[in-house]
Specification:
By secondary structure, the chain is α+β, with helices and mostly antiparallel strands. It has 3 domains: about 70 residues, Dna Ligase, domain 1 (2-Layer Sandwich), CATH 3.30.1490; about 130 residues, D-amino Acid Aminotransferase, Chain A, domain 1 (2-Layer Sandwich); about 150 residues, Succinyl-CoA synthetase domains (Rossmann fold). The protein has 14 helices and 18 strands. α11 packs across α12. The longest helix has 20 residues.
Length: about 375
């Protein structure tokens, strides 16, 4: 479960991590009133689960009431990378001289949690990791003992941070790890952690994702789930019982089994496309469930083409084919190109059932993915 920035900051603040004064607003008038109470300048920040909000116009720094009103009016209701903005965080603007990144996640390659620090905060940390991996200091942590103070200090000094703020940053990193561990975190990060001219450090952004399977141990966080749900698609995924993650691309992906879906995502990326989602319909999916999956992907305005990858074990190819036909026959015009690959149990029967006037059928997964990527590029061009 992903928390919104304002929710994550509430959790961080309760643990003692400094955050700016802020108020949540759902209307322009509420935003203006919050800005007046906090005092200008303030930042008005869209509360959606996407990165790069500032570059996409979802964060604005304002100096007075007129600018606050105009910015709130622009941001509230906007479509930000496919997500509808229905709330903003009005936050005291931090006068900073440096930006730092701190984060905690699980390093699955090593099999241990990893704490990370970088002096190159305020930018996409994935880009930093790709372009200059040495710019990120890492400390792997034995979960049996937790993070030692010396590990936090070492990560901070390895990142090359100024001695005047090193102690405070190390303390925040330790607190962040403790939160991650105690609250069943999946990812916890502050980017940027701003450093002021007075050598104070303040969490200007916050990310905290919780292991959904552990919410029964975190009842107070579980209460935030409905409010943290991003949009109609995520709500629909919960209603249908799908494992679903929305991404930034334009190739919709449906499969049965997490491994199969991940393989499809990797191939879309390999052949130059951009995945729009992860959607696992699970084993033994009947026609109605398949139709619901197509309904979900068609509902994503970012999707330009859909690849359907089914390998029949429990799931029967003829049931899948019936579901695809049932879903597509509801449309006078098919909203997106659909490319299907069926293999395994009853695959031959399924191929015969599929209405090839409505879908494009490919024999191999590679051919299906390449066809979907090409179809998406054609629509997008």
């Amino acid at each position: 479960m992903r928390l919104h920035e304002y929710q994550a900051k509430e959790v961080f603040a309760e643990a003692g991590i400094p955050v700016p004064d802020a108020e949540l607003a759902r209307t322009v008038e509420e935003a203006v009133a919050a800005a007046e109470e906090i005092g200008y300048p303030v930042a008005i920040k869209a509360q959606v689960h996407v990165g790069g909000r500032g570059k996409a116009g979802g964060i604005e720094l304002v100096e007075n009431e007129t600018e606050a009103r105009e910015a709130a009016d622009r941001i509230l209701g906007m479509d930000l990378k496919g997500f509808h903005v229905d709330r903003v965080l009005v936050e005291d603007a931090v006068n900073f001289v440096n930006e730092v990144y701190v984060g905690v996640t699980m390093d699955r390659g090593v099999g241990r949690p990893v704490a990370m620090v970088s002096s190159r905060g305020g930018v996409n940390i994935e880009e930093v990791a790709e372009e200059d991996p040495d710019a990120i200091a890492r400390e792997h942590i034995d979960p049996a003992f937790g993070m030692h103070d010396f590990q936090a200090r070492k990560a901070v000094y390895d990142a090359g941070l100024d001695r005047d703020v090193a102690g405070d940053v190390a303390s925040i990193l330790t607190t962040l790890y403790d939160l991650w561990e105690e609250r069943d975190g999946a990812d916890a990060e502050i980017n940027p952690l701003m450093v002021t001219a007075d050598d104070e450090v303040i969490a200007a952004d916050a990310v905290f994702n919780i292991d959904g399977d552990a919410l029964f141990r975190q009842p107070d966080l579980a209460e935030l789930e409905d409010e943290a749900a991003e949009d109609d698609l995520e709500a629909k995924a919960n209603e249908y019982g799908f494992d679903y993650v929305r991404l930034d691309g334009n190739v919709g992906i449906i499969g049965n089994g997490a491994g199969l879906v991940m393989t499809t995502l990797d191939l879309v990326d390999y052949y130059g496309g951009a995945p729009a989602n992860f959607l696992d319909i699970g084993g033994g999916a009947k026609a109605e469930r398949v139709a619901n999956a197509l309904d979900m992907v068609f509902s994503d305005e970012n999707v330009d083409a859909v690849v359907f990858n089914i390998f029949g074990g429990i799931t029967r190819g003829d049931e899948v084919a019936n579901g695809i036909n049932s879903a597509l026959e509801q449309f006078d015009d098919i909203p997106k190109p659909v490319i299907v690959r069926l293999a395994g149990t009853k695959a031959e029967e399924g191929m015969e059932i599929l209405n090839t006037d409505l879908v494009q059928v490919e024999a191999t997964l590679e051919d299906a993915v390449q066809a979907a990527v090409a179809a998406a590029e054609e629509v997008d061009s």
